[in-house]
Design a protein that fits this description.
With about 270 residues, this protein is an alpha/beta fold. The chain folds into two domains: about 50 residues, no CATH class; about 190 residues, 3-Layer(aba) Sandwich (Rossmann fold), CATH 3.40.50.150. It is about 35% helix and about 20% strand. It contains ten helices and nine strands. The strands form two sheets. It has a seven-stranded mixed sheet with strand order 5-4-3-6-7-9-8, sandwiched between helices. Strand 1 and strand 2 form a beta hairpin. Helix 1 packs antiparallel against helix 3 and helix 5 crosses helix 6.
């Protein structure tokens, strides 16, 4: 697979084999002399062929680990990334300090954020929305499998269209589309050819959806309240400026991910407003 330009080809090959055998990657080394039966060999060959076509490993296996939960994923949803785990950390930390009880996840996709908040947090009410019915089906199935479906409310529609007038939350969180439409040619085939474009691209500068979320957030945040967004590389100054222009937020900051890049923008409204 390496000759096809696939990064970490050996790791991918091992993870595909582990998935075929239903064991961990470590167990492969403990069972290195185990022969494959015909069905296992055929399945492995099929997996490798799919990977050579640059289908993401997570779609082939059909699942991905995200914090404390395992999520089913396919082409209907964006593959959850480690950067989004940092976003969940930001929300959980703030929620614990401010006794937050309600949250809305705009554009839930696979349900990674909303389900992690339900599993790890103390929220009494979590709303998960998405403009894609297919994505909501994936998220709902994940919630059902994890025993969390009754902890969430599900809404189909675009951003604030599915939020009632005067409806407010302690936390608004989102990993929105933020890739510039002109950047498609710079992305790996695994991303641009397989993941849903609707969950990736947001106008020439990538901020079309972010702006809509930030501008609408003050009307739907309780006091104190938190808006937390995942953003793309280099977008933090523009997003902070949009938040500050609302004149609603009392504290706006960018937060770095594990690689040291500004990846999260958080904006707070204090209890005095």
């Amino acid at each position: 697979m390496a000759e096809r330009g696939i990064e970490n080809a050996r790791l991918d090959a091992e993870l595909l084999m582990a998935a075929v055998l239903g064991v961990s990657r470590l167990d492969l080394y403990l069972q290195f002399d185990r022969p494959l039966d015909r069905q296992e060999l055929e399945t492995y060959r099929d997996y490798v062929k799919r990977r050579l076509k640059r289908e993401p490993l997570q779609y082939i296996i059909g699942r991905v680990q995200f914090r404390e939960i395992e999520l089913a994923v396919d082409r209907r949803v964006l593959i959850p990334r480690p950067e989004t785990e940092v976003l969940v950390d930001v929300v959980l930390s703030w929620a614990a300090r401010h006794n937050a009880r309600t949250a809305i996840d705009l554009g839930t996709g696979s349900g990674a954020i909303a389900l992690s908040l339900a599993r790890e947090g103390s929220f009494e009410r979590i709303v998960a929305t998405d403009v894609s019915r297919d994505a909501l089906k994936v998220a709902y199935a994940n919630a059902e499998r994890l025993g969390l479906k009754d902890r969430l409310e599900w809404r189909h529609g675009s951003l604030w269209d599915v939020v009632g007038d005067g409806e407010a939350f302690d936390v608004i969180v989102s990993n929105p589309p933020y890739v510039e439409s002109t950047a498609a040619g710079t992305l790996q085939p695994e991303v641009v050819e397989w993941e849903p474009a609707q969950a990736l691209f947001a106008g020439p500068d990538g901020l079309a959806i972010v702006r809509e979320i930030v501008k609408g957030a003050p009307a739907h945040l309780r006091r104190p309240g938190l808006l937390a967004l995942e953003i793309g590389a280099g977008q933090a100054p523009d997003v902070i400026r949009v938040a500050e222009e609302t004149r609603a937020f009392t504290a706006v900051q960018s937060i770095r991910d594990l690689s040291g890049r500004d990846r999260i923008v958080s904006a707070e409204i204090n209890g005095g407003q």
